[in-house]
Specification:
Length: 187
């Protein structure tokens, strides 16, 4: 027997609830894993290059890279619990698909390599692109660039059951890239 008080309905009384009360619905660990990922506040890639204020040239290799942080590249970890079940999740970017607005795209695995002046006109060793045409005639004279990150999430139940799994999350960032042509003048 339990004394019941419900302020919303102003109900006061005694109620019979069998031992253990009503059975709790089972907890889906993957739902908890998604809840853990939601708490990570994952966002699209933090594009370091190409820079929106930069001007790039047709035929010159462009190095692509992103700044790394737990919310923009990972790794990032979080837990979520419900009842007796606790799930730990770990998220990290597995790949970034760069779409350049000129009809081409590149898939890069990793954050890319930051350009160093000593590299000169060499292409990036990890992630890069070379424009074949200028952005003249595009809105704002720039190509609309999109970087789409695929986050790989691995989760495990750390309390309450034995289970594990994985899923992906997609996040996207956008930038504008101006590309010009260099003209050679000679005899």
């Amino acid at each position: 027997m339990y004394q019941v008080y419900c302020p919303e309905t102003m109900r006061i009384g005694v109620e019979w609830i069998p031992d253990g009360g009503p059975a709790a619905p089972p907890v889906d660990p993957e739902v908890l894993a998604h809840r853990a990922v939601d708490s990570m506040k994952l966002v699209g890639p933090d594009i370091a290059s190409p820079q929106a204020t930069g001007k790039y040239a047709v035929g010159v290799p462009m190095w692509l890279w992103v700044n790394q942080a737990p919310t923009t590249f990972g790794p990032n970890t979080a837990t979520a619990s419900a009842g007796a079940v606790t799930v730990s999740a770990r998220a990290e970017v597995a790949a970034i698909i760069w779409k350049f607005g000129d009809g081409t795209s590149v898939t890069c695995h990793g954050p890319g390599t930051a350009y160093q002046a000593s590299s000169g006109m060499n292409p990036s060793p990890t992630c890069g692109h070379t424009f074949a045409k200028s952005s003249a005639g595009q809105a704002g004279q720039k190509f609309a660039l999109t970087a789409t990150a695929t986050w790989q999430v691995n989760w495990t139940v750390t309390a309450g059951a034995v289970d594990a799994g994985q899923f992906t999350e997609i996040r996207q960032s956008q930038a504008q890239v101006g590309v010009g042509e260099l003209q050679a003048v000679g005899n």
